[in-house]
Amino acid sequence: MTRRILHVVTNVAHYADPSEPTGLWLGELTHAWQVFAAKGFEQRLVSPLGGASPLEPRALKWPLLDRSASAWLNDPASMALLADTASPDRIDAAGFDAIYFTGGHAVMWDFPEDAGLQRLTREIYERGGIVSSVCHGYCGLLNTRLSDGSLLVAGRKVTGYSWIEEVLAGVAGKVPYNAEQQMKARGARYEKALLPFTSRVVADGRLVTGQNPQSAKATAQRVAAML
């Protein structure tokens, strides 16, 4: 039976200052997409508002732009997918085996409070599916509650972009909150790699999270293996 993956991407194009652009960190999508495509999985994109998902400019420049992301940029069919993503109300969670939250600083604004994304996450998880995220994508898991009212992440091992990585990336003063701190405040058992910007994947049952862009491929591989 063909497995189906729902990728979550952002609609936000800038930091609080409109002159400072951000968006989807493309490689976090493309590395996972390649892993799932190689398995023959079906894949679809969803965003909080539907429509276009802007791209983080920093991720489109050397040395951060790798072959995977470059190939997507140069493929009109792939770019068309990002130009017309589905909104949550157009998605039936019953049709998907896993949800994968991509990152980029933009998601810190539109992922955490989106009721549609929370519904999809809850329904996929409670049907026995996998909930996964990479980097800032874990912001989309901060406020998701299960049917019993408990937070999905409470008491669970997770990882995601760390505060030290925010500092080293030079954006600590631009982000709206400390995601690592907020995750811990919700009772999550946050973990991170010994060295910043190195791959780290944490799996706690059907909850799979990756720390940073360097973790995207490994995160997707863990999800694919579980499926």
Automatic annotation (TrEMBL):
Keyword terms of this UniProt record: Glutamine amidotransferase, Lyase, Stress response
Residue ranges annotated for the DJ-1/PfpI domain, each copy included: 79-223
Organism: Pseudomonas ekonensis
Name this polypeptide is given: Type 1 glutamine amidotransferase domain-containing protein
One Pfam entry name: DJ-1_PfpI
Coiled-coil parts of chain: none
